[in-house]
Specification:
There is one protein chain. By secondary structure, this protein is α+β, with helices and mostly antiparallel strands. It has a single domain, classed as outer membrane lipoprotein receptor (LolB), chain A (Clam). It has 5 helices and 13 strands. It has helices at residues 2-12, 122-134, 225-229, 232-241, 256-259, and strands spanning 32-44, 47-60, 65-76, 79-80, 83-90, 95-99, 111-115, 140-142, 145-151, 158-166, 172-182, 187-200, 219-220. It is globular, with a radius of gyration of 21 Å.
Amino acid sequence: PLLALLGVALTLSGCGGDEKKVNDSPAELTSQVISGDWSGHLSVHGITTDFDSQVTVIFDAEALNVRVDGSLTSKLVNFTGPQNFSVILHAGSKRATVHLPSKLPLLLPSCFYKDVEELPPVALLKDLLKDQMKSRKPDGMDGDLRQWVWDLPGNPGVSGHASADLDDGNGFRKGSGTISVDTNETKLDAATTFTSASVQLVKPNSSLFEVPPTWGKCVEAPNSTSVSLGPHADLVAALLLASADPHRRTPSGNSAADFAADA
């Protein structure tokens, strides 16, 4: 009897059997600073590039602002990286600003912006995101991480999927995606993965989402920007949609410890 009781006690405490951890809690908007490796393969109209980048993503869950700093290595035509880049998406001003300090074989200024007029007001967007997140539990577990999987809407000529893995604190740990577009206007295939090296659940300093004077004069992106960028247009778009090792420095010179708001 004593051995039976001991076995029951061990099982209830999680020390017995092979029962895996299950967490079916929905995701929550959470401010965080993430650093990790983002890599992938991109082919547009027969022009192919493989890329790998070290990135730091800063997300403010209150203001819904996003900043990405990184160094990207890619092979495109006769051009090989690495190239530093920064992207700031300021939800309040509905503006995305891109900084490309290194010289690229593209007819673009080193700093340019694009106004995203379609973006809803921050309060409305936040409510929409929260409602969507609350209504969907994880699709399963990837080890100790909750995993969500999405199939792209079934538009003609478009297929693909995406996945995201979050920890118990809603820190973004892993993600992947594929997309294939085959229409009269566009032929594109892409596959990307992101794996975080570390995550800090901190509220970022609001000044990080202001365009620094060191970026120089920023001009409005021409209407042909997506065409001029070629394959890199999709990289920039992916960065804008993205939601830290405390001692790793980004190309902008910051460490993750610098990203936390002043106490």
